[in-house]
Amino acid sequence: MNALRVLSPIAEAISAGRAVVALESSVVAQGLPVPANSDAVRRMMSAVEQQEAMPAITAVVSGTPTIGLTSDEVVRFLNRSGVSKVSSRDLGSLMASGGDGATTVAASLTLCRAAGVQVFATGGIGGVHRDPFDESADLVELSRSQVVVVCAGAKAILDIAATVERLESLGVSVVGYRTDEFPGFYAASTGLGVPARADEARQIADIFRAQLAVGHPGALLVVQPPPAEAALARSEVEEAVEIALDAARRQGVRGSAMTPFLLSAVERATHGRSLAVNLALLEANARLAGTIARELVESH
Ligand code: PSU
Ligand code: MN
């Protein structure tokens, strides 16, 4: 059994101290429909590359935890058949059974720790669900991974206020990038504040280095609103989420199926408009992550 495989250009970049940005794969294999998922991969990869950083998709490939997929593997994950959703608890059993798995934020952070990758981009983190009780492992992994995580807040299907409170309890630092509000993924506004704000990537790098200097064990969660031209109104999002939650309750959806189910139900309820926002914010987050990764390796 192989403990970790890092694609060779990425391994070289890490050891040479060049900028690398990890990207999760669950959003590709479970969170987005075909063929929009391949659009997402293309847009995220090129956004990172445009910032002169190296993108690295995280996944479990035939049982091997992997940083950086080959192009054949990307195609396999985009087709998604036989690709399971992997959170941190699932890593060991999938490695032992030799299967393919797409990593959530939680499992991706575990791989970032193993490989020493310091910057990671995603769409929205998992968090505290509304009724019935369900809390993403993303939160706990954020509390014990020294990684800058760029996102558009927590997915709108969640209880965002409760998620923000849990982040605080777990000691996860949150910084708003050019915003004073914790964003609501599809919508820019939630009415919830952030404890700190940064208007430049350099400030984010400074905060992260300060955290490392004092031995803070957790992540720096960078939240930025979805791009304004794509964002939905808060009321439209709330309506769609209510419809999605009703459907989930009626169908008795539970556990790890919950997040993918709700995301696609919201997409139907918004007539596909949520999908366009999702793609736009993934690209924007990848771009910002690339900029931060470069700041981290350039300025010290
Ligand atoms: N954000 C998206 N789409 C997704 C996810 C997040 O826009 O598919 C995924 C991420 O991988 C996140 C996971 O880590 O959902 C959370 O799932 P759960 O609530 O089961 O932990
Ligand atoms: Mn859960």
Question: Could you walk me through the main structural features you see in this protein, from its secondary elements to its overall organization?
Answer:
The chain has a single domain (5-298), classed as 3-Layer(aba) Sandwich (Indigoidine synthase fold), CATH 3.40.1790.10. The protein is α/β, with parallel strands linked by helices and 300 residues long. Helix 9 (201-213) crosses helix 12. It contains twelve helices and eleven strands. The structure holds pseudouridine-5'-monophosphate and manganese (II) ion. Pseudouridine-5'-monophosphate binds next to helix 2, helix 6 and helix 11.
List the defining traits of the structure above.
single chain; 300 residues; alpha/beta; Indigoidine synthase fold; 11-stranded mixed beta sheet; 11 strands; 47% helix; 15% strand; binds pseudouridine-5'-monophosphate; binds manganese (II) ion
Outline of this structure?
The chain is α/β, with parallel strands linked by helices and 300 residues long. The chain is 47% helix and 15% strand. It has one domain: Indigoidine synthase fold (3-Layer(aba) Sandwich), CATH 3.40.1790.10.
